[in-house]
């Protein structure tokens, strides 16, 4: 008895007609009749009664049909489970980002949450993130400033975090005793910062333009630790996300809050609504939102 035989038997029972069942299965009617005959020989009893031009399950046939459907359902469940397991083992979530922070923690936490998934991170500009989402080369974009929704190209963005910034000053800087700092306080001073395509710099450039501040940039690097060392060595001051201050408590004594309430940068999680093969996209989005909420509640908002 083969799985195929049970499939043929169940369809014939449901249609109550051998010829119609054979047509639907794409086999010859004599072949289907032979398969049903073999099944009846194996169970030792006839399974159908002839009623005119139709056939109908008899008492024995009803019993076999009930068990056959259960077996076929279990076989389908088994195949689905195997397919899902194979997909998990080969599934790589591809994220393009221009964010210097957060994503390492997100990746590590997600892989603890979903150990069968891999997460690949690619650093990219905002334009590259948008193009990768549009082309299907990226599953998600983690970007600041957030990408705009584009219904025509199927790009949707959810703002998941609002990052505030502070100034990190060299040791012994006279403004370290102040509560807040403004651009007027550091006119003509050397500044170290990230590259122009980075999230921090994009938001910072907008802010400096708004307040008509022209920085004296002496060093550019996307390595936050390098910028911190540069400030500590006295090379210049830096504008850093406050999350850096929380992540590295030793630098808090060098940090002063910004005098501007709009020294912020929104972080957006973007994805394509046209990529139908991303089965777990909504789950990943909810995971990231919950991760950021936990971070906000347990770290960022606790001073």
Would you kindly provide a written description of the structure presented here, covering whatever features stand out?
The chain has 303 residues and is of the alpha/beta class. It folds into three domains: 3-88, Winged helix-like DNA-binding domain superfamily/Winged helix DNA-binding domain (Arc Repressor Mutant, subunit A, Orthogonal Bundle); 91-161 and 265-300, Periplasmic binding protein-like II (D-Maltodextrin-Binding Protein, domain 2); 164-264, Periplasmic binding protein-like II (D-Maltodextrin-Binding Protein, domain 2). The protein is 45% helix and 22% strand. It has helices at residues 3-15, 18-25, 29-43, 59-90, 103-113, 126-135, 199-210, 224-232, 242-247, 281-300; strands spanning 48-51, 54-57, 92-97, 118-123, 140-143, 155-168, 180-181, 190-193, 216-220, 238-241, 255-258, 264-272. The strands form three sheets. Strands 3, 4, 5, 6, 7, 10, 11 and 12 form an eight-stranded mixed β-sheet that branches. It has a two-stranded antiparallel sheet with strand order 1-2. The radius of gyration is 32 Å and the shape is rod-shaped.
């Amino acid at each position: 008895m083969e799985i195929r035989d049970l499939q043929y038997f169940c369809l014939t029972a449901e249609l109550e007609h051998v010829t119609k069942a054979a047509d639907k299965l794409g086999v010859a009617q004599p072949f289907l009749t032979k398969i049903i005959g073999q099944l009846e020989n194996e169970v030792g009893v006839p399974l159908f009664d002839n009623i005119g031009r139709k056939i109908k399950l008899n008492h024995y046939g009803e019993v076999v049909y009930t068990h056959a459907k259960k077996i076929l359902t279990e076989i389908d469940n088994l195949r689905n489970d195997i397919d899902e397991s194979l997909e998990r083992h080969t599934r790589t979530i591809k994220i393009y980002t221009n964010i210097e922070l957060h994503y390492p923690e997100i990746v590590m936490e997600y892989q603890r949450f979903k150990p069968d998934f891999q997460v690949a991170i690619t650093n990219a500009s905002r334009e590259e993130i948008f193009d990768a989402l549009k082309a299907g080369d990226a599953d998600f974009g983690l970007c600041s400033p957030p990408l705009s929704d584009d219904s025509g190209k199927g790009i949707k963005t959810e703002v998941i975090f609002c990052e505030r910034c502070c100034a990190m000053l060299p040791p012994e800087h006279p403004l370290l005793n102040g509560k807040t700092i403004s651009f007027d306080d550091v006119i003509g001073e050397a500044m170290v910062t990230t590259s122009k395509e980075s999230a921090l710099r994009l938001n910072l450039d907008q802010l400096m333009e708004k307040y008509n501040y022209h920085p004296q940039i002496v060093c550019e690097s996307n390595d936050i630790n390098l910028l911190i060392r540069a400030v500590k060595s006295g090379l210049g001051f830096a504008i850093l996300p406050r999350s850096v201050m929380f992540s590295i408590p030793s630098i808090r004594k060098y940090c002063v809050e910004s005098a501007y309430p709009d020294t912020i940068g929104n972080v957006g999680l973007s994805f394509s609504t046209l990529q139908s093969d991303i089965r777990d996209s909504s789950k990943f989005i909810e995971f990231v939102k919950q991760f950021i909420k936990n971070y906000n509640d347990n770290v960022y908002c606790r001073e």
